[in-house]
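Attaching the record inline, Q. Sequence:
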Amino acid sequence: MIQAVLFDLDGVIVNTIHYHYLAWEHMFSELGGSISEHSILLHEGRASREILPVLLEEAGVSIPESSYADFINRKREYYRSIVHVTEYPGVFDVIQALRERGLRTALVTASARKNLEKSLDPGKRAFFDFLISGDEVHRAKPAPDPYLAAMNHLGLTPADCLVVENAPLGIESAKNAGMRCIAIETTLDASYLQEADYIVHDVRELLEHPALASGAPGDE
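Structure, as predicted:
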């Protein structure tokens, strides 16, 4: 029986992935390299410390490993300086409706805590019973740790939780945690989301989905 819905942030709640790409591209361009936005979409959810070596290789540039942390921090600062945060239409209406049905909610993001706070003001963060950022877990997505942390905090089991994701690594993380997952076609089309249990086009479809039927929390 579904008792909680666990949401990713970037690409699910807020439309910010393009700005993450712009920030990475800015950093690599300073070194004389370039990356594709598609790579950022495919690697979304992975910890910055894990994605950086992959992107360095794609960009055809290198920096000492001892400089990774500074590079990532400067990328994050640049991201926060350029991002224009917009929410997906109706997303907080959906979350509020789910809460009114008796479901609990959590936010599970690979973004740094400062990026999370830049994306959501305290009022919006109050829509969630639990929030966890990428710098608060030892193993990031696709490991199950972020979603298991939310589940454990809420005192639930994998069968009680339904994850809402938009990226392959996030879906993999949810499945590795033993949870069902609804994927939204916000940043990638359905061909990249096939490991999810369900695929929807718009977050507002969640309210009509069999796994989240109106009324008391229930299974399909």
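The beta strands are 4-7, 104-108, 130-132, 161-165, 180-184, 198-200. The chain has a mean pLDDT of 95.

More tomorrow.
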